Model the fold of this input.
Amino acid sequence: MPEAKRVSADVAADEMVRLAQERGDRLAHDRYQAMRPQCGFGQLGLCCHNCNMGPCRIDPFGQGTREGICGASADVIAARNLARRAAVGSAAHSDHGRSIAMTLLETARGQAQGYSIKGPAKLLALAKEWGIATDKRSLEEIAEEVALAALEDFGRQDGGLRFVSRAPAKVQARWESHGVMPRGVDRDIVGVLHSTNMGGSNEPYHLLRSCVRAGLVDGWGGSMVATELSDILFGEPAPLVSEANLGVLKEDHVNILVHGHEPVLSDALVAASQTDEVMAACEAVGAKGIQLAGICCTANEILMRHGVPIAGNLLHQEFALVTGAVDMMVVDIQCIFPSLRAVAGKYHTKIVSTSPKAHFEGFTHIEFDERRALDSARTLLLTGIQNFANRDPGKVHIPTDKSPLIAGFTTEGVFDHLGGRYRPSYRPLNNAIIDGRIRGVVGIVGCNTVKITQDEAHLTLAKELLRHDVLIVQTGCSAIACGKAGLLTPEAVELYAGAGLQEVCDAVGLPPCLHLGACVDNTRILTACIEICREGGLGDDFAELPVAGAAPEWMSDKAIAIGFYVVGSGIFTVVGDSLPIMGSPRVADYLTGGMEEDFGARFAFERDPLKAAALIVEHLNAKREALHLSPMIYEPRPAETLGKRWRAGGVALAAV
Done:
């Protein structure tokens, strides 16, 4: 195992790794070391097990086997494998969206205990967008029709997804011309998977277009449904203050962690945790209260709407158990390590799975029922509270590390943050870009991976872009990484931002990195780009905007789907580890070059975050030059001043 200090950029995480080593706990990093060297054929995308004649593998050096048993080439195998992974990632996010739509429908019909329409403004706006009548109708009647309309997009057989009409006309025209216009979520995902069956599509570029289609039905379908309908059901987020890292756990409280991705359960747990019954139960076992905290994107969901603190991102799920202070971890779906059973077995922690879609060997399973949401949530909390008495004080070790953060930013909220209550507008943002105070906007998203030092790529990339006056928007584990490091506060502006970005952030009181929510909420980045185009002055096509995406520590198939809908929509994206296609020069060349001709954007693969930042800055500069924008007002902030109080001279941003 590498030196503990190399495992994570997070001091609290390294503290837990050292403690785990002393106690003999086996964590993800240990399992990674035991797995090395990893299969080189798989990493290059050159192994195929799509039928029982294989598995087949292609020699990447051209000296051995050059085709599979069926005759599939390296190009076909790499593209086909990638299409399958894109379809799986799209299915994960889209099924999340379906769950939210079903819960909204049951809520509208009075069949979901404890839920209500908490985002009426978003409901009415979406109803208007979809042509659904609102006059003289109750919110429940409108919500029922909106939910049914959303669910139609999953089984739709012809026409197109409803949200596709939001995309700029030029973007839609590209999709039509290349045959990737998203039609129906289930139809398109099934179609992609069907084409990858043995004897299916064997033309690599057709398979790569299937990857784009799989991504688009995620970004403009399932994920956008999840984001929009969550705002209706759980309320539209607004800026709030909270904290992040393992230091949010409390020794004298019952600590219950929620981990996963679907907010239907976590939102009910927040409501139930505030009841008199639950508080009395805590008192009865000698606890001062209940500390609810989150891991991964469930954490982001309840952070954005309720201010519930975050215990950590993906790799923190094991670190949290090593504290010995977690009385229960409640999980639902996605990004959950089966290893939690073994780690928790050395402590008193109870691991409870709740989703009908995900059972785990050795976990206690208490299925969550949306129709009895508060009762189900109360049962789960009482289970955790009862386990408090089994805690071993000798094993409790909670790091003190935690950082304040501000979260709760949305596409709609930016109108008010930038333009004020009386003149809400994206004009100040567009003007700041046009005038040269902000170089551009970049979304940094994605996971953690044990292959590199946890969080380090997220943090290094963010800080390097900030010093070049780039406004950053974030979701998922990347947002949590920057939250733990203090980048999601206004104070971070003086420590990391260039002079132009400082002027803008100081004028409106924003952090330099804006937390937009969970990984499905990457769609907020798409809708923000829509508003930038509508405001004018920066082009009428995503491919013309000085914007970019980055996933420096990607891990999940969901990240592949996200990458394809972002690039497929016309936004240049830099990925840390390359996608598993490097054994096929044709496929790699298309994704990093030819794809731009077809879709207005391309991928770049760069593991070094400083080099990735340089690629992004170069891209933003090229887009600015093509738009004939003003030169940047200030030179980039000197790298040696990062992390120090620093203020360059300049004229404050004029009020708009």
Q: What stands out?
A: Residues 380 and 405 are 28 Å apart (CA to CA).
